[in-house]
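Hey L., structure's done. Input below.
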Amino acid sequence: MDYDQGMEANARIALVTGAARRVGKAIALHLAARGFHVAFTYRSSQREASELRDQIIACGRRALAIRADLTELPTATDSIAAQMAAFSPTLDLLVNNASLYVPDDLADATQIGRLSAIHVEAPLLLSHRLRPALAAAPAGGCIVNMLDLMGQRPMKGYLRYCASKAALANLTRGLAKELAPAIRVNGIAPGVVDWPDDYPENEKAAYLKKVPLGRAGTPEDVARLVYFLAVDATYITGQTINLDGGRSIA
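Output:
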């Protein structure tokens, strides 16, 4: 546990999984800048997690960095729930962002367990373990699951990744029914919002030709939508929003 008491005890509370880097980091910082105390998990990015913790505290918020390997279930989710109980008795927002993006092929069965654990089982277990805290949030709790446009449009070479994200989309709808009316549950399905490292320039150009808005998204686009779903979208649940510049209609 890595904890700082911080300020503004009446602010909203958020937990973002897999937030030390990239999109998760953008979400955590955007929430902190807009008044949330933020807890987040990370697996191995200790330096980045420490930096993020310091940045959240610099916003005048409380911060909690939780080291957790979400392939180790239910140990990891039990630990997260215990540390969150010490951090706050209520939880306004759970963002299931942690992800594993790895290629495979039809004959490769080595990754399916890890992908299912991170993308399906961990969000389900966290939703269950944190349900009382979410239900106790003053304005009602909210869960945002980070999906992927590839869960709707499977890509060759990433069968198990795509299938596990599709399962998370189904889980999002099921949880919305299960947890209503106290807790809202929605999903965000991005297209490209943060290019993988060393992604070829010619492939970037080919992708962008298929995007009506003509550009890739950004982690900040995702962060703004998370905030909207958490704070402003009080009559929206069970929905998946494609954050893709129109790629899904092209």
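The helical segments are 22-33, 46-58, 75-87, 112-129, 131-135, 159-179, 201-208, 219-232. The chain has a mean pLDDT of 93.

-- N.
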